[in-house]
UniProtKB/TrEMBL annotation:
This is N-acetyl-gamma-glutamyl-phosphate reductase. Its main location: cytoplasm. GO terms for cellular component: cytoplasm. It comes from Natronosporangium hydrolyticum. Keywords: Amino-acid biosynthesis, Arginine biosynthesis, Cytoplasm, NADP, Oxidoreductase. Pathway: Amino-acid biosynthesis; L-arginine biosynthesis; N(2)-acetyl-L-ornithine from L-glutamate: step 3/4.
Length: 339
């Protein structure tokens, strides 16, 4: 019998990915999966990829603390602003990993500015690859998993800033995400006929992951342009920053290589090979490559990951493994599915 886990928000894309990962995890046993509008349906009806698994007939029940309370660890895969109220009603004995934004930001003013409403307090931040975070997560009962863009950008940028290679006040990010990053709710601008065959910017200069990235990396200012890409899942981000001095490609690569030496889920690609989202699909892997712009001299890092994997559910399971004293890689793939 494995560790008992529950998923709140199991009908969404991140929730479905959590169920898929739990189904294949050697140490986790599902005790409850909750939903809102889809309560009463079977997991395999909502997520066809689960239909032929042991979870295919698993019933989704209404989201209620009583339905979740028997678990040793609870995943909250709820919309931003909904996790905190539920988390406050969960048993203190249960460990919790929140995939939403409610507990990521330390600064209450930043929460109010970017999300609005009262600040629910910060939990341990769930990005194990940051210095000192792995041990903090392992010792925590409450962990706030990263945002998908935040994970993609932070893994690219944090080592450069920590090494003093680039200026913290001049960071520019252009990143494209698949449509699943916007959630499963029906929205006109996410219809296939609106998205397929085109690339469009959104929340230009005002994306809510900016304060999270600044908090995680130490950047002083970030110009961030997110793009909606005509694909279901995946993020590709190009992060550029003004160098603190003259920097070569080899120096930039060495900083990344040193930072992620031995990390199971972050990989610096061979020189000249650039990341693409297809190579990360279904995996908990982030792929990186560094360069230096020939004209401007700016240091750049391109980063790719699966927004539902390392950007959401995979990251949450990675944190849960640490919190439960399990092997960090348990139940998580390092090789993507392509093409």
């Amino acid at each position: 019998m494995g560790t008992r886990v529950a998923v709140a928000g199991a009908s969404g894309y991140a929730g479905g990915e959590l169920l898929r990962l739990i189904a294949g995890h050697p140490e986790l046993q599902l005790t409850a999966a909750t939903a809102h509008q889809q309560a009463g349906a079977a997991a395999g009806q909502v997520h066809p990829q689960l239909a032929a698994t042991a979870l295919g007939e698993w019933p989704l029940v209404a989201t209620d603390p009583a339905a979740l309370g028997e678990a040793d660890l609870i995943f909250l895969a709820l919309p931003h602003g909904e996790s905190a109220a539920l988390a406050a009603r969960l048993p203190a004995s249960a460990k919790v990993v929140d995939l939403g934004a409610d507990h990521r930001l330390v600064d209450p003013a930043a929460w109010t500015e970017w999300y609005g409403g009262p600040h629910a307090g910060a939990w341990t931040y769930g990005l194990p690859e940051l210095p000192g975070h792995r041990s903090a997560i392992a010792g925590a009962d409450r962990v706030a998993a990263t945002g998908c863009y935040a994970a993609t950008v932070t893994l690219a940028l944090a080592p450069l800033l920590a090494a003093g290679l680039v200026e913290p006040a001049d960071v520019v990010v252009v990143a494209a995400s698949g449509t699943s990053g916007a959630g499963r709710a029906a929205k006109p601008h996410l219809l296939a006929s609106e998205v397929m065959g085109g690339l469009s910017p959104y929340k230009v200069g005002a994306h809510q992951h900016v304060p999270e990235i600044k908090q995680a990396t130490g950047a002083a200012s970030i110009s961030f342009t997110p793009l909606l890409a005509p694909m279901p899942r995946g993020i590709l981000a190009t992060v550029t920053a003004r160098p603190a001095r003259s920097v070569t490609v080899d120096e930039a690569r060495e900083v990344l290589d040193t930072a992620y030496q031995g990390e199971p889920f972050v990989r610096l690609l061979p020189a000249g090979q650039w990341p693409h989202t297809g190579a990360t699909l279904g995996a908990n892997t982030c792929l990186l490559q560094a360069g230096v712009d020939r004209d401007s001299g700016r240091v750049l890092v391109t980063s790719a990951l699966d927004n539902l994997g390392k950007g959401a559910a995979g990251q949450a399971v990675q944190c849960a493994n640490l919190m439960l004293g399990l092997p960090e890689t348990a139940g998580l793939a390092t090789i993507g599915v392509a093409p």
